[in-house]
């Protein structure tokens, strides 16, 4: 294993790379999904999951669930939610949410019994495991703890998300940022540059077909892929549209129409892949 991603310590607890820990200890992720254009990712993830998940009160294991942005509404919907995350600050915040149990954990070494959850969500862990071996291991752990007939849903960042995003915002034309953007587009590896010019922390950006291969390698049978934001996230007015309840519903309905169109899966910033035990 390389030193640029999370590795478990002798006790099996996660030890994140310094730059990943520092990035999430800024405590910006929770707010990112609750305001501005980030709400499109939040509402669309919620929309897809509500169609994929079994009825409450099914047991949901939210692996890498951060501060509980999704755990909060899942618990409100009546699900039995257990959240694991490698960042203690996230776990502390999530543990305050009604109906949510939270503790520190590593996606690649879940301290849970076999077949103990109806749903396993990995809505972040695969972002920060640059090595395929580790991603397959995390998916294999999800397979181990999900019950037969249960659902595993993993989120990934699409390969050209950085390129599309920075073209939309204009950051692509900053010569100090462009090498980082183009490097990630070439091999999927986002390498932080340090300082205020860094776009993100250490991460891996998938091609949609590669996620299917990793599911299969972990013993999971994919059942569907869903582009989260579609092309809407690249449109300059999307935040204003989301402010208007009527327009927001129209945007969500429009994106839903193309969410599983193979030719458009990679346009989204994020992708959800669902499956179950083979």
Automatic annotation (TrEMBL):
GO molecular function: 2-polyprenyl-6-hydroxyphenol methylase activity; 3-demethylubiquinol 3-O-methyltransferase activity
Residue span, Methyltransferase type domain: 61-153
EC numbers: 2.1.1.222, 2.1.1.64
UniProt keyword annotation of Methyltransferase present: yes
Keywords: Methyltransferase, S-adenosyl-L-methionine, Transferase
A family per Pfam: Methyltransf_11
A biological-process GO annotation: methylation
InterPro entries associated with the record: Methyltransf_11, SAM-dependent_MTases_sf
PANTHER family according to UniProt: METHYLTRANSFERASE (PTHR43464), UBIQUINONE BIOSYNTHESIS O-METHYLTRANSFERASE, MITOCHONDRIAL (PTHR43464:SF19)
Record-given protein name: Class I SAM-dependent methyltransferase
Organism per entry: Streptomyces lutosisoli
Taxonomic classification: Bacteria, Bacillati, Actinomycetota, Actinomycetes, Kitasatosporales
């Amino acid at each position: 294993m390389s030193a640029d991603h999370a590795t478990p310590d002798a006790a099996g607890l996660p030890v994140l790379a310094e730059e990943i820990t520092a990035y999430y200890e800024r405590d910006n992720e929770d707010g990112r999904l609750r305001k501005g254009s980030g709400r499109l990712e939040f509402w669309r993830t919620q929309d897809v999951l509500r169609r994929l998940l079994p009825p409450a009160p099914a047991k949901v294991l939210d692996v890498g669930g951060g501060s509980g942005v999704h755990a909060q509404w899942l618990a409100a919907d009546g699900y039995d939610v257990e959240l694991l995350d490698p960042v203690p600050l996230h776990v502390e915040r999530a543990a305050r949410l009604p109906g949510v149990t939270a503790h520190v954990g590593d996606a690649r070494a879940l301290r849970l019994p076999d077949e103990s959850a109806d749903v396993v969500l990995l809505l972040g862990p695969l972002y920060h495991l640059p090595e395929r071996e580790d991603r397959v291991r995390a998916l294999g752990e999800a397979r181990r703890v999900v019950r037969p007939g249960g659902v595993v849903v993993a989120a990934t960042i699409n390969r050209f998300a950085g390129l599309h995003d920075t073209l939309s915002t204009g950051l692509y034309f900053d010569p100090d940022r462009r090498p980082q953007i183009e490097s990630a587009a070439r091999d999927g590896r986002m390498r932080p540059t340090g300082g205020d010019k860094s776009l993100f922390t250490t991460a891996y950006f998938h091609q949609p077909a590669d996620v299917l291969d990793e599911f299969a390698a972990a013993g999971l049978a994919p059942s569907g892929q869903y582009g989260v934001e579609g092309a809407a996230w690249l449109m300059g007015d999307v935040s204003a549209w989301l402010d208007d309840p009527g327009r927001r519903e129209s945007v969500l309905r429009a994106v839903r129409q193309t969410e599983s169109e193979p030719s458009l899966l990679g346009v989204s910033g994020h992708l959800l892949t669902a499956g179950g035990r083979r």
